[in-house]
Design brief:
Layout (H helix, E strand, L loop, with lengths): L2 H29 L17 E3 L5 E3 L22 E2 L4 E2 L2 H8 L7 H4 L16 H8 L7 E2 L3 E2 L5 E2 L13 H5 L14 H7 L15 H4 L8 E4 L33 E4 L11
Antiparallel strand pairs: 1-2, 3-4, 4-7, 5-6, 8-9
Helix pairs in contact: 2-4
Amino acid sequence: MSKSGFSLLFLALLHLMGFLFPLRVSAIRKDIGFLEERSCRTTVQGRYLISDDEGNVCDALSLESRTRCCPWKGERFSCHGCNILSQCCNSYEFCVSCCLNPSQTLLEKVVKVKVAKPATSGTYKSVFDFCAGRCRHNSESVVHENAYHSEFHHCFSLTSNASGANLTQVETRLLGIDVIVGSQGDSCDAVCKSRGQLCVMNKLSLLNQCDVMKRYMNCKGSCLASAGADQPAEVVEDAPRDLARVCIPGHNHCFPVTVHTNTPDDSAHVPRS
């Protein structure tokens, strides 16, 4: 091959490579995607446990150094050591984790809550900011300035404008109490003992309220508060159609119920004591 012919062939190859190479680069750029790197915000209060903004709790040593996230293992949005009724927990990190659950705290409500009492205080910007702030110790959970009302002093209720929860009187008196629903005929002592706990008889009367019982009982109809010597009583679900709506004593010594239940046809059957 002559020198001129070789030069022409070389130029043609260069031209062909210059034409193909950009297309190949373009194809690579379109086909290859990059996953968004995981990154978390975390609590800083605890010495041993950490909660991230995804609702995970882990010990400080297992926190991923690059992402600052807890490993994806275990229960997310854990309410371990929490009283769902009072929305208070005995651990700061699990309080934050439980609070982050969308079923417990909604963003549209959080952004309306003030960080502190003064009128000039701003509002929370995210659910994590709200949970991390609310779950810290606060003056409302302290008695005599150096002790807590209960070990459940990490609270995330929406009802207070302070950094802690403004519990109702009933909720406050139930702090530290686990409500266990037993079967009909079981005694309070037997049910609690089966869970490794003790029955607190003087707290049972606090549970005789519709708002409280609705949290624990599977109520099919409406709930109306009742009072009188014939209480407590409960209305069972399989009510005969020929009976009027009534309420007769049915105390089973496990979970006293002080309600009338309205069924769709306004009739109900109650268990005999």
